[in-house]
Amino acid sequence: MQVALVGITGYAGMVLYQLLRQHPAVDEIHLYDHKLIQNEKLSEMVPAFYSDDTAVQPYDPDAIMADNQLVFFATSAGVTSKLSQPYIKADFPVIDLSGDLRLNDEAQYQRWYHKPSAPAQALNQAYYGLADFHSAHGQNYVANPGCYATATLLGLAPLVKLDLIDPDSIIVDAKSGTSGAGKKPAQSTHFTQANDNLQIYKPNQHQHIPEIMLELQRWNGDVKAIEFMTTLIPITRGIMSTIYAKVKPGVDAAKIDEAYHQIYDDKLFVHYSGEHLPDIKQVVGTNNCHIGVVYNPTTHTVMADSVIDNLLKGAAGQAVQNFNQMFNYQESSGLELQTFLP
Amino acid sequence: MQVALVGITGYAGMVLYQLLRQHPAVDEIHLYDHKLIQNEKLSEMVPAFYSDDTAVQPYDPDAIMADNQLVFFATSAGVTSKLSQPYIKADFPVIDLSGDLRLNDEAQYQRWYHKPSAPAQALNQAYYGLADFHSAHGQNYVANPGCYATATLLGLAPLVKLDLIDPDSIIVDAKSGTSGAGKKPAQSTHFTQANDNLQIYKPNQHQHIPEIMLELQRWNGDVKAIEFMTTLIPITRGIMSTIYAKVKPGVDAAKIDEAYHQIYDDKLFVHYSGEHLPDIKQVVGTNNCHIGVVYNPTTHTVMADSVIDNLLKGAAGQAVQNFNQMFNYQESSGLELQTFLP
Amino acid sequence: MQVALVGITGYAGMVLYQLLRQHPAVDEIHLYDHKLIQNEKLSEMVPAFYSDDTAVQPYDPDAIMADNQLVFFATSAGVTSKLSQPYIKADFPVIDLSGDLRLNDEAQYQRWYHKPSAPAQALNQAYYGLADFHSAHGQNYVANPGCYATATLLGLAPLVKLDLIDPDSIIVDAKSGTSGAGKKPAQSTHFTQANDNLQIYKPNQHQHIPEIMLELQRWNGDVKAIEFMTTLIPITRGIMSTIYAKVKPGVDAAKIDEAYHQIYDDKLFVHYSGEHLPDIKQVVGTNNCHIGVVYNPTTHTVMADSVIDNLLKGAAGQAVQNFNQMFNYQESSGLELQTFLP
Amino acid sequence: MQVALVGITGYAGMVLYQLLRQHPAVDEIHLYDHKLIQNEKLSEMVPAFYSDDTAVQPYDPDAIMADNQLVFFATSAGVTSKLSQPYIKADFPVIDLSGDLRLNDEAQYQRWYHKPSAPAQALNQAYYGLADFHSAHGQNYVANPGCYATATLLGLAPLVKLDLIDPDSIIVDAKSGTSGAGKKPAQSTHFTQANDNLQIYKPNQHQHIPEIMLELQRWNGDVKAIEFMTTLIPITRGIMSTIYAKVKPGVDAAKIDEAYHQIYDDKLFVHYSGEHLPDIKQVVGTNNCHIGVVYNPTTHTVMADSVIDNLLKGAAGQAVQNFNQMFNYQESSGLELQTFLP
């Protein structure tokens, strides 16, 4: 199996490349970059890989389809929205880690991403690959979910699917490390600014909100909106999504516990730990999501603490999980990772 | 003016000592420690002050009252609860930075602090010194508020006092740096564990909850309970209290904005910045609380972002503010501090 | 192959356990703890492994030898010095990650470790397993090198072995993250103290100095002493050993470069990168040592920058490397790790 | 007293502005920026000062000289080199925090700063204001020393001035926090890259080397060169300069101790602490330099640990110290700062 990877210079691409190098079914990884006009060495393009002289090739869809059986895009928003045609036409397998194919409506994309969307045909064709809930087998055009979306949807799923909460009461206080903001240097992720600091950003405006809403509404049409805050935390990797909701009358701690068990006991990569509230270190380095839940009978509020590694389960790891599903590989292929402890 | 300080070995005591050294009305600071049986040099007791050979004296209430006009206690919970008698009897001014005098009920203290409370007389005598809302002038026995309590109460005050929110809907997602957990080493604050991590702790069990409830109920009897989560963040100093509530019918962004202006425009140490959401660096090194507020009309939810330096406004700074009020000094005496930027 | 691991509660033990779980030749890992008197669950003993209910058994040398083919000790200094007898007597394979067997002289151990040494017989029997330089094959009693020692020896080897430097001029300015200081909480590794700080400790007194000297003298008898400073850095994992020495007359940049190539070009886990100076992130998560070297012709000084992950190459990784050598497994078995990027 | 400040958008300018606001002799601070063409509010230009609406004016030397008695430049290298003429001509007091006036040779500047130097006249006119060693009184054109230079020169002074060390043996392993690298975002100071990392940069090429050499040679002509390494550390503020040198025959610990006492016992802002090795937290927030020294008789090597706050003693604090000297204010005016503890 030969796979193509476009976008090795970003964090998600770097991590995906490392995963694919250890994937038992992947024989060769071909790297492409849409800014190149001739081959360049990986060691020159990404200093962190200074001992790896693999060639990075200019982006060329024909070459990609000729030399590979699938292409991963780990590019920024706004790139794959313009590149969909040849792959759709050829029905060639794509996994896109950017947000470009996650929404199904051109106007919505424009509103949240502030740039033109992919053509409607591409948006309609795309499949939202929340890998722990539905299999990408049979899909050829997979939109890999966003990091905040993954942590939040996995934390909310039992409550929403089993209709345990007031659908108007969902509040998400999500925290992310700086690698989630990408590799391009900026004031907010300058060490001097980010260190010893907490910074709320994009209040109720984060571009992962609409993909969360789409999936929640597939699960339960009563959910019309959520409150969604994102805070930048001085850590490199990891997301904690702290989720609050009022329960419906008659719901108690036992019913909530049962719901999480029901939904997650058979899922390989989601671990429900009851009232044990996971910290971020529990999952960094792995494709796991850990979830702890506390119910407060005085306020009738359930709090779910859902943690993931934003670059693995929130990006490259889930992409490999989707890849495994598409090609019927074992679910854990290439994902037998150990928590990065301590 | 001579002042006594008991508890120089903890973080709040260290910071308070530094503030008092620069206070224009304070001529001498006498240090006492209840673990000593003879004088010891500060440089020996607190390595961080290795160039300061000031004597630390054994704790002795008679000596304290003879040589000073006021005593600050910057001791752990469970210390001042046992030491109240002589000061109350002598009507000698006390400012207590611990939680021992903040509640007015013995059973409540026992429940939240897991140790015996101060005598009922002491609890009743004590005055809760939330310095930006009521003056400690005329008070002799001041309980200095907790750090989480200060950030949360200041963030909530306009909403609760002016009755803008559903009293059953308050959710507080509060984040604190490690200095709030005290100087005693522990697994959760070990650098190896705290770095690159977020750790939720004491869910709905933090001991600052009851003092918040007491003050909220003084402001608005309709508030019966709050959801209160505390997360340990890898920063040294600072608290961000992110507060969510559903507004009452008819309340909109303009009314909320007006309320914050009404309550805070004349307050020296509280700065309301509208929709500009303050980060923690804005206040570290100062006695200020900065508050930004965003209203989401879709979810009818108001979010307030309230930040303080936990060791200043959340401890030593507010103690000096109470001290200034008690003795009718200028409000900013000893508190003309600059934000620790960048 | 069954292996025993004593000391799962410390950082090196935790990481070793994770490596062994993925080692293709290891069928079962039996955990033992010398503080237990009956079996306990790993999830109870080490909260970080809360989803792993593997039994930890009380320490019992007979059981260990009956049920396993080798024992790893990842215990603190002072433990294995008392436990050597049964294994030596039975000629049972041991890999000891503590410092107890690294020196060959009882008085030296006592001087640097401030506690009684292992019996002389054990010290003499022990083999110093600097795995990139000599194979542990045929050895049964292996002392795994210290983290600072590994980074420093690998950085110095070409200069010392090929006699390129003035033997009296070696200065090592070594920096370590806090995980090197162990899991027991202490003031110096309290987040509040370690964060935003650099702390020099044990100047010229670090217990890894004598094992470095022993190995250097095996390589080149002219080296009589080194200057060795250790600084605690606010990072979780990683060591950078910055090494300075005056070169001998006639030595220039080309000769130095040639020496590093000569020594390291065929070594799997040591990567010499010429004048590219590796940062710590290059090696964290792997068993690699990366070394960059700059020669300053004005000061006749060579500077080597040697970086490792203190818990892998500096502890558990090198232990697995020694294990592979002892049992003739492939050198990279269980060590095909990816750099933890970004 | 009215003072002008050019360069409020950088870190040194931000800190200098805060110091000047509390300086008892400064009545007004006028802000200027050479990128403006009309007035702008400080709150707009520097988000960290969002509650300060002070006007920032376009750069205009005539206005500056008309409205002020002195101008501080806190601009990047390459700015003041072009702006010297009007001030020199008018003999108007200047304190320049950039490196543009620190060297006395055009070619040297060009070599180390990679840009054209100030005119020779300006270089000759400029006075190197190492404030703890010589007074700027009577000087009108002051080059404020660099941060690395200050920490290193203060650490070395007693050894070099009193001729205690082999002049060819000086090795400086200097570590700096990210604020020293300036406010402009870059890959090396991106939080994701800098956190959990150590990065050596500009080996023997740092632009502070030539100013260090100039001052050392004024003190002791035998010093011809130094080895000088700079490592970027994941902290916001602070420099630790770890200095090594071989002593001359006959020099021992007592003589070294005596030398440091002789040089520093009467200096207000330099604190020599003997064998107590200061950590960075001891000085952050102050204009102090703390120095600890350990002599190793086995290697005949002295190690000095010199720490400063790079933005205060290494920039804005020393600028105020020079200002105080120029105008005969008390040495500590505006610099009565407390260590930022814990």
TrEMBL record, chains A, B, C, D:
The keyword Nucleotide-binding does not apply. One of its GO terms (cellular component) is cytoplasm. It catalyses: N-acetyl-L-glutamate 5-semialdehyde + phosphate + NADP(+) = N-acetyl-L-glutamyl 5-phosphate + NADPH + H(+). The active site is at residue 147. One of its GO terms (molecular function) is NAD binding. Keywords: Amino-acid biosynthesis, Arginine biosynthesis, Cytoplasm, NADP, Oxidoreductase. Its EC number is 1.2.1.38. It is found in: Cytoplasm. Pathway: Amino-acid biosynthesis; L-arginine biosynthesis; N(2)-acetyl-L-ornithine from L-glutamate: step 3/4. The keyword ATP-binding does not apply. Gene3D superfamilies: Dihydrodipicolinate Reductase, domain 2, NAD(P)-binding Rossmann-like Domain. Its main location: cytoplasm. InterPro entries: AGPR, AGPR_AS, AGPR_dimerisation_dom, AGPR_type-1, NAD(P)-bd_dom_sf, Semialdehyde_DH_NAD-bd. SUPFAM superfamilies: Glyceraldehyde-3-phosphate dehydrogenase-like, C-terminal domain, NAD(P)-binding Rossmann-fold domains. One of its GO terms (biological process) is L-arginine biosynthetic process. Residues 2-141 form the Semialdehyde dehydrogenase NAD-binding domain. Belongs to the NAGSA dehydrogenase family. Type 1 subfamily. NCBIfam families: argC. Catalyzes the NADPH-dependent reduction of N-acetyl-5-glutamyl phosphate to yield N-acetyl-L-glutamate 5-semialdehyde. This is N-acetyl-gamma-glutamyl-phosphate reductase.
